[in-house]
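Researcher: Good morning. I'm working through a list of sequences from a screen, and I'd like to move beyond sequence-only analysis. For each chain I'm collecting a predicted structure so we can compare shapes side by side. This is the next one on the list. No need for commentary yet; just the structure.
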Amino acid sequence: MKEELIRVEHGCFQSEDCAYYFEISVSRGECIGIYVDDHLTSGTAYLDIFKGFSHMKSGKAFSCGRRVGGQALERWILQNSMIVDKYRFESRELTVQDFLLALGKPADRSQRQIVEQRLRSPEAAAMMQQMELCIPTNLSLAELSMLDYYRLCVFRVWLWKSELLILDRLTEILRQKDLEKLMQCVRLLLEQGTAVILFDLDEAFMYRCSDRIDVIKNRKTCYRLYPEEYGEKLYEILGWKCRSSGMKQVGQYSGDDLVLRASDLTFPGVPPLNFQIRSGEIACLRDENYSTAVQLRNCFLGGQRWLAGTFCLSGTVYTHGELAKLIGTEIGIQLERPDRPNGVLFDNLTALDNLSTCLLPKAGKRIAARQVTENILSEASRWFPREDLQKPLRAWSLPQRLRFSYYKWYLLNPKLLICFFPFAGQEAAHHEMIIDMLVTCAKRGMAIWVISSGIDAICEKTENQEFLRRLRYLN
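Model: Good morning. Structure tokens for this chain:
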């Protein structure tokens, strides 16, 4: 039996005035998958335990076999664990060595000297070679590839002899082949006795890598599944119908008018884009490592131009300089977090003002603004409570703001709606709402262009046949 590192029985954790009930058990060399039905609440609260933000109010806690109090458990976690999440640390000034040493973890001078000596040891060189991490320590952190950056994060866990590694949703960032290479590095830690916790929404990834999956549902640990229970059992627990894995078929929808044609559209470091999207179609462009999305976002929302190729919208070829006139009118841009900077919503404005701001200019100068605003309010009241429409959006719940962001495009009705990673970071409970709104916009005649890291698992869960019929993969 493996040595137990931490265990919490009947644990009640407090986070932002909400109580969460988690059962935690992690042993050396064990890889535990954590699947949550509500990532922005339950998932965040669970992660906050390892960040030191969520505190145990009651329950029994054990550390390395000894009964400890809540504060002692928190100290052990902060001293012995490291989190690797999808938010890359970007810096032009910091070097690899700075990242490994200065940003490793709080330590006194003697501890840091020991780690510095270990970094220069043949043992460290051998481990870096095993991880295929052939980079000089004076290299700028910003020059690392995505894969090497996350390999470096895992190596840092080994360097500091941390006993617990937490990986948070890396399937949303890394390509499949890069994820497998990273997990080879993680397995080296597992072989040496480091425990690993996987937070992820990709069941197939967790099935492959986890010794056990803990299911968090309704803000508490509800189920503990072992390999023989993977698959249909998880679908049953979460209330889904288990579907076949053959969801990658091309949709059977035949759109009407050709809206977008990209011919040899070329950006730095990205293969040329060649595809067509028709009205009413939901076309998905796979982007496993976010590289294409970054280039496209910089093109539509920034000043970056494409290197070569043709961008043709509704039969008219546009230069990059002419795109700015189309954004928000003929072309809608939906970001994964619509209320953040560069998003589509203004949090300080009322919902009605958000709609009026984009629709009034479209109405023309001769139309009475007051009359148009009243018409907008009347139409939107079919979707949302009238009193809510006159409140600032910051007072709305996240699901309603998200739904409202798509409704804005439904009213504006651009020819092309580009959605950057619409499901990334969203709670599983909101996926059906996003799917419904995408279909609603497509039915109005828009061409929907989805840039995503893959939505196969979401397709397997949805019962929206209209979405599956209209969906088509571009690559």
